[in-house]
């Protein structure tokens, strides 16, 4: 069985394939002149083959990354091996429009590029560049990364107040304590809780109690430093990690927080709910074996504040020695 021949005037099968493939394909010589330009490139650039073949590619596309592209092509000429560029390294080579919705979060078609040496008698005579549209892949990966980041953030956050949860707070405290052990300096922690919170729940209801907790968390979050770590320790108890902060300064922070919480009652649907807080402070000190020592000492100071009448900040005397 014989294969029918194409008329001499018709394109070859290879020409038809090059024109119809679903990715960009163009060929450059060593002077960056365009030798081939397929239909994909024409359709997405708006520049026909007749307008670009035989000319330097930068003449028609001055926005291309000139130095980067020239280095990439020259490396293929010199080494005679393939080169590749992922959208993760460089989002695009050409500023082509894409067909993804605006919500995809990308301005231009995301592209993978392959640089292939075209050889003749073991000599590279040109470089063929392919441009693949990977916008869908990049958008899906970004969405997946965003979803993972949000899940990670949710895992670190208290569901009611939106501040750090106890697990995340303790992990950061462990890190800061280890840093203090290596390099010294100052490190303090505050534990505080809302006075008579059970009475608030009993008198105003748990919905009002949740509102108070959210309000207090937001107030404190608004006054702490960026480098501090503020978290909910459980129930109505909160914790504040103060890196590079000596105990005396931590006590000033404790008083600031106590006034931030207690000076203004919380308005819960027209009901005024007075709130105060008791605060215990502790600092890392020589002889502390781990971060839990700080927590225990701050907790003891907190309960001392409760026993002394509440609505006050306390540090145990032995911490000052």
UniProtKB/TrEMBL annotation:
EC number: 2.7.7.65
InterPro entries per the UniProt record, alphabetical: Diguanylate_Cyclase (IPR050469), GGDEF_dom (IPR000160), Nucleotide_cyclase (IPR029787), PAS (IPR000014), PAS-like_dom_sf (IPR035965), PAS_4 (IPR013656), Rev_trsase/Diguanyl_cyclase (IPR043128)
Record domain PAS: where: 17-80
GO cellular component, one term: plasma membrane
Domain GGDEF as annotated: residue spans: 185-318
Catalyzed reactions per annotation: 2 GTP = 3',3'-c-di-GMP + 2 diphosphate
Entries under CDD domains matching the protein: GGDEF (cd01949), PAS (cd00130)
GO molecular function list: diguanylate cyclase activity
Record-linked SMART domains: GGDEF, PAS
Stated name of the protein: diguanylate cyclase
């Amino acid at each position: 069985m014989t294969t029918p021949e194409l008329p001499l005037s018709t394109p070859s099968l290879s020409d038809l394939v090059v024109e119809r493939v679903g990715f960009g394909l163009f060929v450059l010589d060593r002077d960056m002149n365009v030798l081939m330009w397929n239909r994909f490139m024409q359709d997405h650039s708006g520049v026909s083959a007749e307008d670009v073949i035989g000319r330097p590619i930068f003449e028609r596309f001055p926005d291309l990354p000139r130095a980067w592209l020239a280095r990439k092509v020259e490396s293929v000429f010199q080494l005679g091996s393939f080169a590749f560029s992922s959208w993760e390294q460089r989002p695009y080579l050409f500023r082509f429009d894409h067909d993804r919705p605006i919500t995809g979060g990308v301005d231009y078609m995301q592209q993978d590029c392959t640089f292939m040496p075209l050889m003749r008698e073991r000599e590279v005579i040109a470089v063929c560049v392919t441009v693949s549209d990977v916008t869908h892949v990049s958008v899906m990966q970004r969405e997946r990364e965003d979803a993972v980041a949000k899940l990670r953030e949710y895992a670190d956050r208290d569901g009611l107040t939106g501040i750090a949860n106890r697990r995340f707070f303790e992990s950061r405290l462990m890190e800061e304590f280890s840093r203090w052990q290596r390099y010294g300096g100052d490190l303090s922690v505050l534990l505080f809780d809302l006075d008579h919170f059970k009475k608030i729940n009993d008198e105003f209801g748990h919905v009002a109690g949740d509102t108070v907790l959210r309000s207090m968390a937001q107030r404190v979050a608004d006054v702490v430093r960026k480098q501090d770590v503020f978290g909910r320790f459980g129930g109505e108890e909160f914790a504040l990690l103060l890196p590079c902060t000596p105990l005396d300064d931590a006590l000033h922070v404790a008083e600031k927080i106590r006034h931030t919480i207690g000076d203004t009652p919380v308005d819960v649907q027209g009901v005024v709910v007075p709130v105060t807080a008791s605060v215990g402070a502790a600092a890392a000190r020589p002889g502390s074996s781990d971060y839990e020592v700080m927590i225990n000492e701050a907790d003891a100071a907190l309960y001392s504040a409760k026993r002394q009448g509440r609505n006050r900040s306390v540090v145990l005397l032995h911490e000052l020695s």
